[in-house]
Write a structure and sequence with these properties.
By secondary structure, the chain is mainly alpha-helical. The chain folds into two domains: 63 residues, no CATH class; 71 residues, no CATH class. The chain has a two-stranded antiparallel ribbon. Helix 3 packs antiparallel against helix 7 and helix 6 packs across helix 7. The radius of gyration is 21 Å and the shape is elongated.
């Protein structure tokens, strides 16, 4: 899907997501609707990024969209928690079981009790606390 964020409208929707298809589409519209293109926002799919760079080179800035960056970060945070949980003893692992929501929720959306619970978890598991801090800074 091609969206003009400045004018808040959908420009086009193409079938497929392989690089060759995207390159052909971009080349077809390079001198027309994309003649003043300055920035492309996309997810991490290599074909999008590589097609844009192939057609426009360094004249166009490629930005990864916030939604997909955060989604990937959340997935990595969950995987880190699970990996840590697997490496703990049975009793210690129980402390982390069922805490995914606490780790992934913005602090302002937690109740006071949940914030206190998360603070205790952060003290107990500083590596996860560091990941949460990085996510919040992002």
């Amino acid at each position: 899907m091609f969206i003009d964020h400045t004018n808040k409208r959908v420009l086009d929707v193409i079938e497929g997501r392989d690089k060759e298809l995207i390159v052909n589409y971009l080349r077809t519209h390079k001198e027309g609707r994309f003649c003043e293109l300055q920035e492309v926002t996309c997810d991490r799919w290599d074909a999008y990024v590589n097609a844009t760079l192939e057609v426009f080179g360094d004249k166009v800035k490629v930005t990864l969209d916030r939604f997909h960056v955060m989604k990937n970060f959340q997935e990595q945070l969950t995987e880190a928690r699970r990996e840590m949980q697997r490496g703990l003893g049975k009793e210690e692992a129980k402390e982390l079981k069922g805490t995914r929501w606490l780790w992934q929720t913005n602090p302002e959306n937690l109740s006071e009790e949940q914030r206190q619970q998360l603070a205790q978890l952060k003290q107990r598991f500083p590596r996860l606390a560091q990941l949460v801090e990085q996510r919040e800074n992002l």
